[in-house]
Amino acid sequence: MPEVVPQPPNPLLLPYETGHLRLRNRIAMAPMTRGRADDTTAVPSPLTRTYYAQRAGAGLIVTEGLWPHPLGKGGPGIPGLVTDEHVAAWREVTRAVHAEGGRIFAQLWHVGRMTHPVTLPDGELPVAPSAVRITGEPIFTRDGPLDHVTPRPLATAEAEAVIAAFAAEARNAIRAGFDGVEVHGANGYLLQQFLAENTNLRTDRFGGSRNGRLRLVVEVVEAIAAEIGPERVGLRISPDNPENEIAEEDPQGTYRALAGALAPLGLAYLHVIERGAYGALADLRPLWPGTLIANFNGPEPTTRRAGEEVLEAGLADLFSFGRLFISNPDLPARFAAGAPLNRHAEHLVYGGGAEGYTDYPALEAPTAEGART
Ligand SMILES: Cc1cc2nc3c(=O)[nH]c(=O)nc-3n(C[C@H](O)[C@H](O)[C@H](O)COP(=O)(O)O)c2cc1C
């Protein structure tokens, strides 16, 4: 008889308790824009509740980014969380996820300069900390790819209004039944544009020094925490991530200071996308007393083994997977069974209907007969 070597439990599959959240495993579904909302009303598609309910086996789902203000919309079919209609539609989604025993946070996402007048109401200019235009890759719009325009810098009072818009969106998230919210401070969108030296050339209190550059993010998080309770607020960051023409001169200095400013608040979690030369997870882990979610963003979908290694090394409490969840709605069950994984169809990621969205199959459920054998 071959010797049976007891296997340590897979760290991704252990339950996790954090503040008011009890998660059935340590796998988070990373936020992913799918572009299927009505482009005029920004109300999510009725398919969206099926899509997230199918993925409720994740310990925690973080939704695609939802805009807090029409100027925060980045492209076609991106949902909002501003109107009563938005709230009602998202309530259907949270109900469906909760009915499956899942937990779901809404991602709050203002894109800043990463949009185009054709996407914004009345052809308005995108807003940003400073008038710094993206010079590289064009931006995707309903009219196809278009060159970026130079964004309009937010006046100080407008930056303060952005804080209020995020707080109002968080209130809407709770009205819609979400378990909490994740503030999108990553990937070169508005909040990271305030954090980064190359996009924030301001001289008011939202720029001018490291503390000035941190201020908008810190005040957004504080305002939301005051509104809905810190235990319902997460923050996503991507230190040293060059995406969307961000160039951070001193990621270590910036993100250590940010973690230091937010650590006393008792937030639900910090969600760190590890990218670039600065080893953010190892550097920030000792500075962050609360829950840490890790994510890797490389050219290929992150593997199960990569997530396990991060948890085994104690670098994070939870690991989030993005692309694997597109094509494997029951990803945790597949990990548990050691089952093969589907690959997603690239051309069906954004926009469209059920194809490439809700039609990826789950593993065959065992039949009563199968269960007996
Ligand atoms: C189709 C797609 C849409 C995405 N949309 C968002 C988003 O709305 N908000 C966000 O913070 N990250 C977004 N991301 C980044 C993912 O959350 C994640 O960081 C990335 O996919 C890397 O994880 P993975 O290797 O497990 O896919 C998106 C990624 C993909 C592939």
UniProtKB/TrEMBL annotation:
CDD domains: OYE_like_FMN. It holds the Pfam family Oxidored_FMN. Residues 13-342 form the NADH:flavin oxidoreductase/NADH oxidase N-terminal domain. InterPro entries: Aldolase_TIM, OxRdtase_FMN_N, Oye-like. PANTHER family: NADH OXIDOREDUCTASE-RELATED, NADPH DEHYDROGENASE 2-RELATED. This is Alkene reductase.
